[in-house]
Amino acid sequence: MTTPISVLIRPWATVESESLRHLLRAPCDVLAVEKDEPGTSALVLALPRSLPSAAEISDLVAGTALPIVMVVDVVEPWTIALSRSLGRPTLTCWRSPPHEIVRVIRTVATAPADLRRPPVDALLNLSKRERDVMSLLAMGHQDAAIATCLGISVHTVRSHVQHALLKLDVSHRNAAATLVRASPLMNRGLATGSPSHPRQIAGTR
Questions:
Q1: Which domain covers residue 140, as residue numbers?
Q2: C-alpha–C-alpha distance, residues 1 and 15, integer Å
Q3: Measured CA angle at 67 (ends 127, 105), to 5 deg
Q4: Which position among 130, 135, 154, 202 has the lowest Cβ density within 10 Å, counted as fewest Cβ atoms?
């Protein structure tokens, strides 16, 4: 008898999670588990149609080195940007045929061990100044306000943004801001409203 492949499902107590567990109960060799135990082969994020916040999704993957599968309602720029911030997990969607979802999960869970790497924070590729600029951008500040805050020119701000877009492999600012908000590295600064910058933006406290 074939030994089942154990996959960790998060979040656990949701309609989507129950749906996925029901799907995996069909005759197959994939076993859904609630806790990360020895032998668990992958983390599957059973995400609802109304996606959780980036910070909530970061909490779901915190502390795991398992390869990740994200099951989403639809693959779109927001989910692609989010997946990049989590180390590019495999994406599949609820609209796929059930056997295809199971196939994707099984493929990721049985990948060779040397291909399994912990999630990589996309923001680690940015310089400290680029992270400062992008964190303020993610808070909704305009280029002029960012320039004042950091004591640099608007031209320099725009240059840092362009370099960050290239490093993050995205083509527009909204996608980059999504990556920043999803980044464990940046969450603390965004939560406090205080990235590592020397001056305060006018009109903020």
A1: 123-192
A2: 31
A3: 140
A4: 202
Q: Please, which pLDDT band fits residue 157 given cuts at 50, 70 and 90?
A: very high
Residues 44 and 86 in one domain: yes
State both tokens at 165.
């877009």
Tokens of 3: 């030994």
Q: Do residues 104 and 45 lie in contact, with contact meaning Cβ atoms separated by under 8 Å?
A: no
Q: Sign (positive/negative) of CA torsion 66, 69, 71, 75?
A: positive
DSSP states along 61-112:
HTT--S-EEEEESS--HHHHHHHHHTT-PEEEETTS-HHHHHHHHHHHHTS-
Task: Characterize the bridge pairing of strands 5-10 and 30-33.
Answer: parallel
Q: Is the peptide bond before 11 cis (omega within 30 degrees of 0)?
A: yes
Q: In what order do the strands lie in the sheet with 68-72?
A: 30-33, 5-10, 40-46, 68-72, 90-93
The mean-pLDDT minimum among 39-53, 56-70, 180-194 falls in: 180-194
**Report field, pTM of the whole predicted structure over 0.85:** no
Locate tokens 């995400």: which residue?
Answer: 47
